[in-house]
Structures are given as C-alpha cells and as structure tokens.
Amino acid sequence: MNKNTRFTYLLEKYLNNSCSREEFDEFFELLKNPLYTNYLKESSLSDHLPEEERINDIAKETSDIVFQNILKRAHQKKVSGQRWKPRKILSAAAIFIGLLIGGSLWNQWRNEKNTINSFSDDHVVLEQHDGKQLILDTLKSTKIVSAAGDTIRITQGNLIRYDKNSKISGNNTIRVPYGKTFQVALSDGSIVHLNSGSSLSYPINFSESRERKVELEGEAFFDIAHDVQKPFIVKTNELNVQVLGTKFDINAYQENKDIAVALLEGAVKLYDQQDNNDKYAKVLSPGFVGNYNRANKTIQREEANVENFVAWRFDNLIYRNVKVKDLLTKLERHFNIRIDNEYKAIESKTLNANFGEEPIDEVMKYLSEIYGFKYTITNKEVTIKEK
Question: Which among 67, 214, 249, 324 could bridge 202 via Cys, Cβ 3.0 to 4.6 Å?
C-alpha cells in the first residue's frame, strides 16, 4: 500500500468515524506533512463522502477554503484530544459551499436536505430568517440580494448593513467566533459592535412593532438611533436594557456572575425580565455602570471610567481588579486559543493590566514574570505550570 493510498484509507475511516486509536493518531501525524496537505487539497471531497452527502460542482476557490477549514479544525481537535465526528467536518465544509464564486454571491442548496444546521467556529456567520446561512468575514465589499429579496451590504468583511426600506419580516442572527469582532448596521440606523464569542438576534426591519427589540449573548457596544416612538430594548438571558437613543456597552457572557452595562451617552433603564412592573428598575446616567447580580437579581450602580469597558472595540484590553482565572477566560476568547492552567494557586490572585496589540506570547511572558510560572505555546494551546 503506497503512502497516498494509506492516507486515503485513513481519511475515509476518519470520515466514517471508524478509526482505531492508532489509526486516528497516524492520520493526524500525516496531516502535519505538507505533502498530504496538498494531496487532500487537490483530491475531490465528494470521492470520500457517503453517496447521500456528496456535493457536486464546487468552485476551486471555494474548495480551497473548505479544505483549509477542515485542516485547521482537525488540528484544533487534535490539540484538545477529542474525536471529531464526521458530520461536524461536513457541516463546516458545507457552509463555505453556500458562496457562489463569480457573479452573484447568493446561492441556494441543490435541495432542502442540505440545509445547514451549524456554523463554523472560525468565521462570522449570518443565520437568516429563512434558515440559510452565510459566511460574512470572508467577503469583500459587496451587495448581496437574498432569494427572498432582502438587500444586505458587506463592507470589507467586518460590517453588515441592512436596507432601511426593507419590508421583509423575520429575525436574523449573527454569530461571532472567538478571536474576531463584527459590526451590524440595523435597518433603523443603529450600530452594534459585537465582541468575540457573541451573538445578536434582531429583526430585519422594525416597522411592524412598537419597539425595537434585539437579543444578545456575550458582549456588544450599541450606538442607538434616536426614535422616541420606538424604544430600543436589548434582551439578555436575565436583564433587559431599554433606551431611546444612546451609546452603551453590555457584557453578558455566561461565565460572568454579573451582567455589566456601561453608559457613555444618553440614558438607559435596566430591569429584570421577571420584573413586569419595573419596580426595581434602575436608570443609568453617562459615566455610570450598572451591575446586575445573576444570583440575587439585584442591580447596583457605580461611577466608573466607562471608556475602559469599550476599549475592546479598538483591540485594547484594559482590566481592573480582575482575577487571574477570569483573565485567562477573557484571553481565550480574545485570541481564540485554549489555555490550560495547571498552576491553580494563581487563579484567585487579582491584577490590573493594559494590553494593546501584543500577541499572546508577549502577554503570557508578562504574566509569567509577575506570577512566576512557566508556560508553553503549541499551535493554539497555552499550558501554564508552576516553576
């Protein structure tokens, strides 16, 4: 059996989820060799798929992106020591095939059984109201018209802008992976800047409702267009934030004990979703932060340097009195890496730190000098150990 035949054999077993432990390790070792990377890239994806999964007529540019994504994700799973079932690979590849290279950038699946139900961990994904999905951060400045007639404008792969005259109803959702940020210009003119590891669900237009309501997971900065007739409401899992026109940041990552709302301009009202009468609502003034405690359902206000809360928009990381354990989680999200901390004694320590555009190795070097630990960086994984 020649080497290419052996690689093909292992690839097919991997896609069928029938690798032994030894075959699994052998397959990933071969993937490190550029010869096999090129072989995988040049071979036909459909030749290795079950009949019902085959996808035909993949443009070369799209095919290249697909294979790069498979390789990247496969190496990431090797680092974490987990087996990745084949359908996850197929879903990751299938997302890219939704882009038609040349002419219109809009393309529908050949039949309904190919509808995508997941999204790539490495790309900003738009989940549209009709169930279709679109990769956003790989697109250049362009105008896209969906099958339903919805007009979307993409600016250099980091901003999506909706047509103010759109009459299409329904909600879209944007999901931003670790290591990236993205902006959404809503149909009312409001701008939402999403931080890494965040998602936003929003109506395509607000014409049919008395209020402008969106749902946030993670963190986002909002610059809301003023409309006294239609208050703007941001829903998180527990807390609602209501505004008319203002600029503010919401940090509602699930690992946080509190949901923090930092107000730069205007005024916002914070209230628990279960507080129907707004009995315990709090109103913030510019320069104040509202902290909603998830455990006891209370809201506390305090004056703060709110610019620190939105520094992430400019790739600056500013932390004040943050525990090392929480800092490592934030670094994982910002750099799209995994940090395995085996030196548990430092997790409860607190620090103040400012990071600009420093790469992760410089950040880890700085922290190691403070806390006296050693670390290694391999691919996208950082391991911290006691000296």
Answer: 214
- Kindly indicate the confidence band of residue 361, based on its pLDDT and cuts at 50, 70 and 90: very high
Q: How far apart, in Å, do the first and last CA atoms of the chain sit? A: 47
Beta bridge partners of 143: 153
Among candidate residues 318, 309, 323, the one with its CA nearest the CA of residue 263: 309
Closest CA to 124 of 96, 89, 100, 91: 96
Side chain identity at residue 311, one-letter code: A
Is 314-384 the same fold as 123-306?
no
Neighbours of 357 (CB within 10 A): 9
Query: Where would I find the H helices in 81-187?
Result: 86-97
Q: What is the pLDDT of residue 52?
A: 35
Contact call for residues 25 and 31 (beta carbons, < 8 A)? no
What distance in Å separates the CA atoms of residue 335 and residue 237, rounded to the nearest whole number?
25
Give residue 385's Cα distance to chain centre: 29
325 — phi, psi (to 5°)? -60, -45
Write out pLDDT tens, residues 254-280. Answer: 989 999 999 999 999 999 988 765 778
pLDDT of residue 149: 61
- Mean pLDDT score, 189-196: 95
Return the CATH architecture of domain 123-306: Sandwich (2.60)
Ranges of each domain in the chain: 1-35, 123-306, 314-384
- Rounded Cα distance between 319 and 309, Å, is 9
314-384 has which fold?
A: Phage tail protein beta-alpha-beta fold (3.55.50)
DSSP state, residue 11: H
